[in-house]
Amino acid sequence: MIYQPHLAPLYAIRTWITHRDGIPRHFKGYEVDGNDPDNHLSVDEAMSRVKGWPTVHSGAGFVFSADHPFIGIDVDLYKLTPDHPNYARVTDIVERCKRTTYWQYSPSGKGFHFIFKVRDKPFTKVQGLLGCIEIFATVGYFRMTGNAPDPRPIADLEWPDEWVANATPVSTVYTFQSDLSGLEEIKARVARKYAASRYEAERDIFTPEAGQALYRRCGSRHAADMAFAQAVAVITYDVDIFMALHRMTGLAAIEFKGGGDPKKAEYKNQHAERYVAKAFGKAVGAVQKMRAGYAVDTGMVIPKLTRAEVNAEKARALEEADKALRAFDATLVKPRHP
Asked: H or E stretch including 216?
């Protein structure tokens, strides 16, 4: 990483980590949770480790946290083909960001990392358009490559008022606070799905006993959350409905074990909803990719559809992506330092 004057505001904040091939690392080299404040360093500490032990620490990264006003926007334009309906609009977003704020190329050299300063962080992390766009607000980090061909000061960004008022704090997908319309219908569909399960103990999924059975079969709270998320994502992309259904299963009452690490377990239990929503975001992304014709190895079972249903699902996925892009595009309307 090359020190740059325009990054001075980030250098002053103790939310840096070191990584090896993109995985946050402890001083001794083992993997750690990059979002855990106990693992954060000053920039000088991080760079000292990178320079002193390059075989253990290949680079430094800046973590996005609720404790500071900076956010990161990751745009992987290469994931869209030029004939994609939203390619031109995403290209325009990239060009506007490049003219507005500090940016660097991603480690692959194909994507773009933009950094903005905001007054409010109404969500944790949002993603959309088949993983082409991600905004990191209070979790996640950027590997600071220093590959910034046109360095400029970090600009202020003002969210549209409706984002601050309505965005779901734990959301990991492009969504706003739902009125939970259709909850009972979706609950019934999920219940029917589990009623046909080969695992008898899980057939009445909206009971604590069935939730415990799912947990025992999966072997961990995270795996159980992901299994349930996959079942719901096939039916709806609404994270608020998913969170409501998740609570009905009794899974929310089961504590994370943190792989036997008490500190990690305590952190995960303190931020349990964040991890649950993150699991659903991953499940939604996998379903959207498969429905749009991408090959994804997730072990998920997607119901077989007729050609007409496939076309309808592709149209739906494009509509969801377009809605996500409009929401994202709205964030760039009011930069205070053009």
From this structure: helix 208-218
Q: Are residues 115 and 146 in the same domain?
A: yes
Q: Is the dihedral of CA 225, 136, 122, 99 positive or negative?
A: negative
Say yes or no: 277 and 145 in one domain. Answer: no
Task: Tell whether 167 and 238 lie within a shared domain.
Answer: no
What mean pLDDT, rounded, does the chain reach? 79
Q: Tell me the pTM.
A: 0.58
Side-chain-facing half-sphere of 40: CA atoms under 13 Å: 20
Cβ atoms of residues 81 and 49 within 8 Å: no
> Do 127 and 154 share a structural domain?
yes
Residues 248, 206 contacting (CB under 8 angstroms): yes
Number of structural domains (the chain) is: 2
200, containing H or E segment: none
Cα(113)–Cα(246) distance, integer angstroms: 33
Residues in the chain: 338
Q: Are residues 283 and 192 part of one domain?
A: yes
Neighbours of 78 (CB within 10 A): 13
Structural contact between residues 30 and 104, judged by C-beta atoms closer than 8 angstroms: no
**Domain span including residue 162:** 6-175+324-331
* Secondary structure letter of residue 155 according to DSSP: E
Q: Measured between alpha carbons, how far is residue 289 from residues 5, 56, 73, 90, 262 in Å?
A: 40, 35, 21, 18, 36
**pLDDT tens digits, residue range 39-87?**
999 999 999 999 999 888 999 999 999 899 999 999 888 877 787 767 8
Edge-to-edge strand ranges of the sheet holding 59-63: 23-25, 16-20, 59-63, 141-143
For residues 153 and 236, membership in a common domain is answered with no
* Beta-bridge partner residues of 61: 17, 143
